Amino acid sequence: MSEDLISKKELLDLTGISYGQLYRWKRKNLIPEEWFIRKSSFTGQETYFPRQQILPRIDKILNMKDGLSLDELADVFSPALGEVQLDRAQLVERNIVSEGSLLLYQEVHGEPPFYNLDQTLQLYVLDKLLRGGEITREEGRMLLEVMGSHYSRFAGKPCELVLIRKMGVPVFLLIAGGTDYFADSEARMVIKKPLEHFTEELKLLIGDTGGRIHE
């Protein structure tokens, strides 16, 4: 599956940022190195970016840069998970996840005394997709099993959550960010989302609500 790319010139024109800002944010790890894709063009070599990832990232940086330092922004955008300990009551009271999602998590993984950031991320992704009507509760169980078994393999590297269905049968995949993949022509892609988007939202939410994150 080919990526939808946007050229550097188009990106700068569309967002209004400068060449200097773009590369300063790259040096600060606000924009991943792997998003700078060099390809041949009729003018020689040109730099392209994955459109669906770079445009939301630029928008977030522009909206958040007045309230957070570049180092703080880099922490938010890092796919690496730090340490956090939140109990069940804190997760619900702070509106991070719903009771329904906690019950489903408990059915699959049991209930730990405290939820670390990895477990909280699983809950957050589950809750968002259930609330949005994108998955069923049974698919939610499958999601928790896949994330619980395999998400740690990415060790802080970007990855995407993919859900495909064929004849009503769902399959979840975790794939390295930006990786091409191919499926049966009868399979329908239902979800393809970078998990880093959920991680960023969760880190901001925990930070806004006074959660403790220790790197």
- Number of beta-strand segments: 8
**Share of β-strand residues:** 15-25%
Order of helices and strands: EHHEEHHEHHHHEEEHE
Mean pLDDT: 86
Given helix and strand content, the structural type is: alpha+beta
Helical content stands at 40-55%
N-to-C CA distance:
35 Å
Number of domains: 2
How large is the radius of gyration? 19 Å
Largest sheet composition: 3 strands, antiparallel
Q: What gross morphology would you assign?
A: globular
How many individual helices? 9
Order of strands side by side in the largest beta sheet? 1-3-2
| Model regions low in confidence, pLDDT < 50 over at least 5 residues | 209-215
Account of the protein in words:
Pfam families: DUF4004. This is DUF4004 domain-containing protein. InterPro entries: DUF4004 (IPR025063). The protein has 215 residues and is an alpha+beta fold. It has 2 domains: 5-77, Multidrug-efflux Transporter Regulator, Chain: A, Domain 2 (Orthogonal Bundle), CATH 1.10.1660; 88-208, no CATH class. The protein is built from 9 helices and 8 strands. The protein has helices at 8-15, 19-27, 51-64, 70-77, 88-93, 99-109, 117-131, 137-150, 195-208, and strands at 5-7, 37-41, 44-50, 83-84, 159-166, 169-176, 188-194, 213-214. The chain has a 3-stranded antiparallel sheet. The longest helix is centred in the middle third of the chain and has 15 residues, at 117-131. The chain is globular.
